[in-house]
Protein: Nucleolar GTP-binding protein 1
Organism: Schistosoma haematobium
Amino acid sequence: MCTVIKRQADNLKFLEDTRQHMSRLPSIDPDTRTIILCGFPNVGKSSFINKVDIKPFEALSEEDKQSINSIVQWHTDRQIRDPDRPIFVEMSTVTEVGLVTVRSVACDDLLAQRVQAKIRAAALPGSNVDISNRLYIAKPKPDGNKVMSYFFCR
């Protein structure tokens, strides 16, 4: 037994190093609502997260406007968007005006993507599949005069 362990020492050390490395990685739950905010260094990702005011589109430099418009053009080329739905949602992280709207839009988009993924995963070509039995819509009970919104869970 001791000889077998000695022969596998390099493999066991590799596995231990890999385990330690993976324990330092953040855990991501695929079933929670997640938004990935990415970009080059020093472009304001942390500022956005830390609630610093965002300039309105009209106040941006021409270079920033062109960058945003190219992203929007790329997105609209890939997916037909609802013409009534705004491409940009106005918000301020200082006054917190529009934060709920941004969150709602992001969650609605995420929900639509997940529903489409479930439909694609369950549907065979040419078949009509009802997935309503696999979706759950949480309907909060009224709590006094508070207005409560719906949340969709998988």
In short: The longest helix spans residues 99-122.
